[in-house]
Amino acid sequence: xxxxxxxxxxxxxxxxxxxxxxxxxxxxxxxxxxxxxxxxxxxxxxxxxxxxxxxxxxxxxxxxxxxxxxxxxxxxxxxxxxxxxxxxxxxxxxxxxxxxxxxxxxx
Length: 107
Hints:
Strand order of the largest sheet: 1-2
Oligomer: single chain
């Protein structure tokens, strides 16, 4: 756990939300991450239903690259689900990422 958090904290990719801190509270390991203002892909699908093929392709086109980048750095996202793909309104430590584009959290 600690090794993964240290590795994730070193990731520098415009579509990866890195952890801020990690620790141990009474034997419970935890890590914190920046708040990403916006909605997850799961929230969007729940609200609006299925996406058109073109919208799905546009939204998901940014997802493989950060996952491949993390994998190349020795990290594998073990919970890459639509709940962990937020579309942010304002970047929180995602200076190079454009608002409205998906990013990957929970590495």
